[in-house]
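Budget justification aside, the reviewers requested a transparent look at the raw inputs and outputs of the sequence design task funded under Objective 1. We therefore reproduce one unedited record. The lines immediately below are the structure tokens for a 313-residue chain.
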């Protein structure tokens, strides 16, 4: 197992290097000049050139890239062009919020999706299965921002049970943190639970038809033992894949939900950076998201090895 992890880590190094080149290159093609944005519309060409020199934008692109990469390897992602704060400080301030939101959504997805998938698989082609399938299809089809607006209308406007927007840190007020987190976590967790339900239902239905499961039933084992001990482990591999994909999507794709609920996470930060042509901020957040996806994929590979010994070979 450790050799597998080491190979995955070594394989991630050239991938991260290639992705850093892509991230740096894509940001350069964003329309507009950051120096013009900072100087203002009425700035003189001399003033714009001064800002370009101060930002290092007048140097060759290759030189800019290696300077940026060297700083990134040391944890220095530069300073924001709009707020003058260190990009690493902004990320350190916003990342826990996005992680909390994504983690809560995954937890809700598991609490809803796993029981629904198991019930659907155990009652294949009957009404529980059809109900779970329809619910999962609706959960996947509904846009997150639309569902969030519905939740705000129902549970914050017509029935003021939860706040419509804002975020409170756990260290400041645990009760307020939970109160503000419920609606956005439910919004994101609905799609996650729908995908988990679909994948678990399909995988578990196939596993329950295998010969070793029939043998376990023939031995007189209880149904929950057959499902929990024999079938669920083999059927959980697709679920692990979904969890990895969903967490990656939630971490980098919570822009609409953060906007709807006024949450100051990474999604809001990247939108503000794009609108303000804040190149260091864009590069830093995208690079962090890329590294997070690689790490998540590594954890998924490790989970495969723990669930299925054949994968270790």
């Amino acid at each position: 197992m450790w050799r597998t992890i080491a190979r995955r880590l070594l394989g991630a190094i050239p991938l991260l290097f290639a992705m850093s080149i892509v991230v740096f290159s894509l940001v350069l093609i964003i329309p507009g000049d950051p120096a013009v944005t900072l100087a203002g519309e009425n700035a003189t060409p001399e003033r714009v050139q001064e800002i370009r020199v101060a930002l290092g934008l007048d140097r060759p692109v290759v030189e800019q890239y290696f300077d940026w990469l060297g700083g990134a390897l040391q944890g220095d992602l530069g300073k924001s062009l709009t707020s003058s704060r260190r990009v690493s400080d902004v990320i350190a301030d916003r990342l826990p919020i996005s992680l909390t939101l994504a983690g809560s959504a995954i937890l809700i997805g598991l609490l809803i999706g796993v029981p629904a998938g198991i019930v659907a698989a155990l009652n294949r082609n009957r009404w529980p299965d059809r109900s779970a399938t329809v619910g999962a299809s609706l959960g996947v089809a509904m846009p997150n921002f639309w569902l969030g607006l519905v939740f705000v209308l129902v549970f914050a406007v017509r029935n003021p049970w939860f706040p419509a927007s804002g975020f409170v840190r756990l260290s400041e007020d645990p009760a307020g943190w939970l109160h503000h987190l419920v609606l956005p976590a439910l919004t994101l967790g609905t799609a996650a639970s729908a995908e988990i339900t679909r994948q678990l239902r399909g995988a578990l239905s196939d596993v329950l038809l295998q010969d070793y499961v029939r043998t376990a039933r023939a031995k007189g084992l209880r149904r929950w033992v057959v499902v929990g001990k024999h079938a669920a482990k083999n059927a959980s591999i697709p679920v692990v894949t979904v969890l990895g994909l969903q967490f990656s999507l939630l971490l980098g794709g919570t822009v609409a939900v953060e906007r709807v609920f006024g949450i100051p996470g990474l999604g809001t930060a990247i939108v503000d950076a794009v609108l303000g042509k804040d190149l260091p901020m864009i590069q830093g957040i995208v690079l962090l998201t890329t590294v997070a996806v690689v790490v998540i994929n590594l954890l998924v590979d490790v989970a495969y090895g723990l669930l299925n010994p054949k994968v270790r070979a």
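Residues 87-122 form the longest helix (36 residues). The mean pLDDT is 80. Computational costs for records of this kind are itemized in the attached budget.
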